[in-house]
Automatic annotation (TrEMBL):
<comment type="subunit">
    <text>Homodimer.</text>
</comment>
<feature type="compositionally biased region" description="Basic and acidic residues">
    <location>
        <begin position="1"/>
        <end position="11"/>
    </location>
</feature>
<protein>
    <recommendedName>
        <fullName>Protein GrpE</fullName>
    </recommendedName>
</protein>
<feature type="region of interest" description="Disordered">
    <location>
        <begin position="1"/>
        <end position="35"/>
    </location>
</feature>
<dbReference type="GO" id="GO:0006457">
    <property type="term" value="P:protein folding"/>
</dbReference>
<keyword id="KW-0963">Cytoplasm</keyword>
<comment type="function">
    <text>Participates actively in the response to hyperosmotic and heat shock by preventing the aggregation of stress-denatured proteins, in association with DnaK and GrpE. It is the nucleotide exchange factor for DnaK and may function as a thermosensor. Unfolded proteins bind initially to DnaJ; upon interaction with the DnaJ-bound protein, DnaK hydrolyzes its bound ATP, resulting in the formation of a stable complex. GrpE releases ADP from DnaK; ATP binding to DnaK triggers the release of the substrate protein, thus completing the reaction cycle.</text>
</comment>
<dbReference type="GO" id="GO:0051082">
    <property type="term" value="F:unfolded protein binding"/>
</dbReference>
<dbReference type="InterPro" id="IPR009012">
    <property type="entry name" value="GrpE_head"/>
</dbReference>
<feature type="compositionally biased region" description="Basic and acidic residues">
    <location>
        <begin position="20"/>
        <end position="32"/>
    </location>
</feature>
<keyword id="KW-0143">Chaperone</keyword>
<comment type="similarity">
    <text>Belongs to the GrpE family.</text>
</comment>
<keyword id="KW-0175">Coiled coil</keyword>
<dbReference type="InterPro" id="IPR000740">
    <property type="entry name" value="GrpE"/>
</dbReference>
<keyword id="KW-0346">Stress response</keyword>
<dbReference type="GO" id="GO:0000774">
    <property type="term" value="F:adenyl-nucleotide exchange factor activity"/>
</dbReference>
<dbReference type="InterPro" id="IPR013805">
    <property type="entry name" value="GrpE_CC"/>
</dbReference>
């Protein structure tokens, strides 16, 4: 037998051995790959339960958040409604008070222009107008309407309207020197600002 024949025989035997090893290892590899792909049904169920529990916890959290937001919105709506009702009660007379101020102004003008109150008829008329004005002022005061604008007060742009500024002796700067028309507040809200003159 030649060296070449021996070499070929060795190669053939080597191929046969390799095939036998391959053939014997194939089932082991298949079993290993099958075990890798194999998922235990119990483990799969546990994973699914954990996933569902996580989703449930997320849903509960979202529901609580929505509930808190809804409660806060309801509280805000209730508070706004209470404030609106309170304002409606407080300021329902605003339009009426604006109208009645003209009557008060006219009565005050009538008292200011009475020149001679010594005449018996005129004095009685004067007294009647004065009593009417006092009663009217007391009535509107009971409903929260109060006058503003007094000579000597400090000028407040929220409740006073300055008509002019001038130097006046005896008054400090920004002090009211003359009230041309009284202003009025209804429960703290300006119904009509007082028209005043202010010291410069």
């Amino acid at each position: 037998m030649s060296e070449k024949d021996v070499s070929e025989n060795v190669q053939k035997e080597q191929v046969q051995v390799d095939e036998q090893v391959e053939h014997q290892e194939a089932p082991a590899r298949e079993e290993a790959s099958a075990q890798e792909g194999f998922v235990d049904p119990l483990e799969e169920a546990i994973l699914r339960v954990q996933e569902l529990e996580a989703q449930l916890a997320d849903c509960v959290k979202k529901e609580q958040d929505i509930l808190l937001r809804t409660r806060a919105e309801i509280d805000n709506m209730r508070r706004r409604a209470e404030q609106d009702v309170e304002k409606a009660h407080k300021f329902a007379l605003e339009k009426f008070s604006k109208e009645i101020l003209n009557t008060i102004d006219n009565l005050e003008r009538a008292l200011a222009t009475t020149a001679n109150v010594e005449v018996e008829g005129v004095k009685a008329l004067f007294d009647g107008v004065e009593l009417t004005l006092k009663e009217l002022l007391a009535t509107v005061a009971r409903f929260g309407i109060e006058p503003v604008g007094v000579v000597g007060d400090v000028f407040d742009p929220e409740i006073h309207q300055a008509i002019s500024m001038q130097q006046v002796e005896g008054f400090e700067s920004n002090q009211i020197t003359n009230v041309l028309q009284k202003g009025y507040l209804l429960n703290g809200r300006v119904v009509r600002p007082a028209m005043v003159m202010v010291a410069a």
